[in-house]
Amino acid sequence: MEDLKPTSVNSSPLTPLGFLERAATVYGDCPSVVYEDTTYTWTQTHRRCLRVASSISSLGIDRGHVVSVLSPNVPAMYELHFAVPMSGAILNTINTRLDTRTVSLLLRHSESKLVFVDYELQSLVLEAISLFPPNTPSPRLVLIANDSGAPSRAAQLDHFLCTYENLVETGDEGFEWVPPSNEWDPITLNYTSGTTSSPKGVVHCHRGAFIITVDSLIDWGVPKQPVYLWTLPMFHSNGWNFPYGMAAVGGTNICVRKFDGQIIYAMIKRHGVTHMCGAPVVLNMLTNVRSGTEKLEYPVHILTGGAPPPAQVLIRTESMGFVVSHGYGLTETAGVVVSCAWKGKWNLLPATERARLKSRQGVRTVGMTRVDVVDPDSGLSVKRDGMSLGEIVLRGGCVMLGYLKDPSGTAKCMKGGWFYTGDVGVIHPDGYLEIKDRSKDVIISGGENLSSVEVESVLYTNPAVDEAAVVARPDEFWGETPCAFVSLKSDVTAKPTENEIMEYCRKKLPKYMVPKTVVFKDELPKTSTGKIQKFVLRQMAKGMGSSRLSRM
Question: Has residue 168 been placed in a domain?
């Protein structure tokens, strides 16, 4: 069989962009995007994307150029996930909650040629560009106008080429979109979410985006034509690649500019939502606006990830009628690559035990090649005893190409055939993985490695606690001790004291794991995707000085 080799017939580059063309053929008259009172069909979305791709190309944007977008989850944001790479360019969606200085840094680092800006964010981008050093080329700007399609009164149109709808109107729907010359060609550039203080530019290729999209649909068991509510920001890892996934299955994308718990419930009822994604903070949001006796009329599937969901939050969410799936991934993997694959026999267990099992991250998805937990020094697998800590490592087709302009950072995390995640975990005897911490969040107290996640899980069982995060505080004697930052539920009448929280933990944890400090806050600092910013809390704890000195 040595004469049988790959040819152009059987080795076309993999790309998720073809999903849109197929959706227009199969689901042409079906709704694709719904936003307020506007509904597009898949035929219309396909044509609009081709028109925008045509217009982008006519502006001189070439293959490999970076095109940035700052926008909430509105139709233009969805369409640009196809239109930008269809022009041959690389899509860079930027976190809308970043400060001016960081946005300026990212635009310069990516060398963005064109920026699509939502009308609510125009001042942010204009100020960011004003911070460019002299003689630094500025990207051209396109305004995503307000919801009626007209520029807002505050729009400084003299700074913009035109509006987004102008590009739709003037573009060619017969445009021959630009396929990747090689499936390893970059399709997206995503900057890490900001749980650390130094974002990195993660580059993904067409092949990786295709693999993670198909993999996620299979793993979550998404049927044809679901109704998907966009509670996950599309700028976060490209919405875990579900913009492409919804095209693959002909789903209906329910877009929403801003949301809270009440809006989510209203959207579920109005549109018949079947699926949604979000960080555990979204689960908290859903359970805090309704009592446990109020249930959904039908099950709604939620895929959660981004942080280990506390078991108590899972119990409350599922008691409302939601079906929660738990996954694990990183910006560097473009989506979920480990999931808590559910076993039917677990349905017979008590609710608390089901929630404990579901809070584990699980096993590799079918599209991942390998997942392991290894000793970071020796590189050897740790014991599968649920106790031996190690670093989680991954290998598979959806792992990033690398960090933009950062070969040393790329080499540091991609070595020996593995991607080193920086997450600390264990593997249980049944083969299921569980995250215990980020490597930088492990607290070493008196020589003992202490998992902040385990302490947080106990804090979440306290009925008064809404959110909790535990970080290290310096201690003269122990080196470090746990410091708990806690926000309380709004309906709590008898608010617990610091000592009462510590006493609660003493009954459930070994002595060395009990927080030595408890700080109450109205709200914990978070990224735009709901991840608690522990680096901010670590700085606050460090600023308090030694916990031992404070007790003297």
Answer: yes
Distance CA 527, CA 511 (A): 32
Among 179, 196, 231, the domain boundary falls at 179
Residue 359 identity (one-letter amino acid) = S
User: Exposed, middle or buried: residue 211 (CB in 10 Å: 0-12, 13-18, 19+)?
Assistant: buried
* CA 164/CA 144 separation, integer angstroms: 5
Dmax over CA atoms of the chain, in Å, equals: 80
How many distinct structural domains can be found in the chain? 3
Q: In terms of residue numbers, what domain contains 117?
A: 20-179
| Per-residue pLDDT tens digits for 286-330 | 888 775 557 899 999 999 986 667 777 888 888 899 999 989 999
One-letter amino acid for residue 45 of the chain = T
For the chain, the average pLDDT equals 90
Asked if residue 192 lies in contact with residue 200, where contact means CB atoms within 8 angstroms, the answer is yes
Sequence-separated (6 or more) residues with CB below 8 Å from residue 495: 464, 488, 520
Q: Does 281 score more than 80 pLDDT? A: no
Residue 72: inside a domain: yes
pTM of the model: 0.83
Q: Where does residue 101 rank: exposed (0-12), middle (13-18), buried (19+ CB within 10 A)? A: exposed
d(CA 112, CA 124) in angstroms, rounded, equals 16
Question: Given this model, what pLDDT does residue 513 score?
Answer: 84
| Contact present, 340 and 308 (Cβ < 8 Å) | no
**Same domain for 446 and 435?**
no
> Rounded to whole angstroms, how far apart are CA atoms 254 and 271?
8
Kindly give the residue spans of alpha helices, DSSP state H, lying in 461-546.
498-506, 534-543
Per-residue confidence at 459, pLDDT binned at 50, 70, 90? very high
The yes-or-no verdict on residue 196 having pLDDT over 50 is no
Q: Are 226 and 316 within one domain?
A: yes
* 94 and 65, same domain (yes or no): yes
The token pair at 107 is 């635009």
Query: Where residue 98 falls among pLDDT bands split at 50, 70, 90?
Result: confident
What proportion of the chain, given as a percentage, has pLDDT over 70?
Answer: 92
Mark whether 240 and 123 lie in a shared domain. Answer: no
